[in-house]
Amino acid sequence: MSARAGIGYDSHRLVEGRRLVLGGVEIADAERGLIGHSDADVLAHAVIDALLGAAGLGDIGQHFPDTDERYRDADSMLLLSEVCTFLDDHGWRVCHVDATVIAEAPKLSPHRDAIRLSLAEAAGLAPLCVNVKFSTNEGMGFIGRGEGMAAHAVASLERAD
Ligand code: MG
């Protein structure tokens, strides 16, 4: 099989007193941030799972367990780079990543280009190979109530050889 696709999903809870980091970009105008063992970058985590899924190489929890102190407050962009190196070692080349962040607030579209460039740089991809979209949940459910954010991602890979 020479080409593959994978999906990723993640969600994190929003709390006071945390930075909001999405795709490695700090959203300075956010009133609250996501909480987790690492920097809780929900977008980066969904992208990592999509990449690992496409390669058939497990999931983020297997590679970076939240019981491991090495990953406390970890920069998820470093984890993303590590995963891309891991895929490269296994003979996979990343073709494209597409993702959607679902958040009620703040407005994220002004940060689209910065997030796209940040993800592309961490993954060693051309910016045109990374797409990021933003959606709200129209006030419904845990996202609509502002309790958390979620992200979905799809990644495609091809054999490097
Ligand atoms: Mg996560």
Helices and strands, with pairings:
Blueprint: E1 3-15, E2 21-22, E3 25-26, E4 33-35, H1 42-55, H2 60-63, H3 76-89, E5 92-102, H4 112-123, E6 130-135, H5 141-144, E7 148-159
Parallel strand pairs: 5-6
Antiparallel strand pairs: 1-4, 1-7, 2-3, 5-7
The structure holds magnesium ion.
Task: Characterize the structure shown.
With 161 residues, the chain is of the alpha+beta class. It has five helices and seven strands, in the order ββββαααβαβαβ. The strands form two sheets. It has a five-stranded mixed sheet. A two-stranded antiparallel sheet has the order 2-3. Helix 1 (42-55) packs parallel to helix 3 and helix 3 crosses helix 4 (112-123). The longest helix has 14 residues, at 42-55. The radius of gyration is 15 Å and the shape is globular. The mean pLDDT is 96. The structure holds magnesium ion (MG). The site of magnesium ion has 5 residues, from strand 1 and helix 1.
